[in-house]
Amino acid sequence: SSELTQDPAVSVALGQTVRITCQGDSLRSYYASWYQQKPGQAPVLVIYGKNNRPSGIPDRFSGSSSGNTASLTITGAQAEDEADYYCNSRDSSGNHLGVFGGGTKLTVL
Amino acid sequence: QVQLQESGPGLVKPSGTLSLTCAVSGGSISSSNWWSWVRQPPGKGLEWIGEIYHSGSTNYNPSLKSRVTISVDKSKNQFSLKLSSVTAADTAVYYCARSLWFRDPPLYYFDYWGQGTLVTVSS
Who has the most CB within 10 Å: A20, A22, A104, B23? Predict the structure, then answer.
């Protein structure tokens, strides 16, 4: 299957912890990657692989996975973390396709 | 630091062909990476269009495959997108990106993105 499912919207109180999830059969074969996108800007990679952060990404961002579900956790959410978050993976059916989740709008209250 | 820059017409007529180029700087397009196109209709999510390797090998989104061609020009360190028979549904911000694809461990991610370019399909 080439579909990844995300909750459309999630909210978190400032300084609290929030988990954003992504579900799909391809996640049994490939690690998810996660992207943050703020209005009018290009997506930015925040997590890839088992739990890897590119240079410059704060350590409050972490990733995990279990079965067909991948999670992005923000520990101690900040106002600047308010953004859309997308998961991405590779189709596992052998068709060599990239696939994105529908995105989750994170609101920091 | 790899940088990508999209260029091309911002307005395309219905039934016409959308053509965009992505110039790569700070790295070689012949490196062991894939080069991808992703689009985002206004107010909507990201859609993977397709990708190319420097050898010319390509993979396309099945929903667009009949209309899409991605090519590479190693001499200019750039790659291009052509989307034919466009309609208003093809109006979107188009991004080019560098993608890394490994089988062990099984990883696939986009580490560098262009700033994106809005293409509007309208008469």
Answer: A22
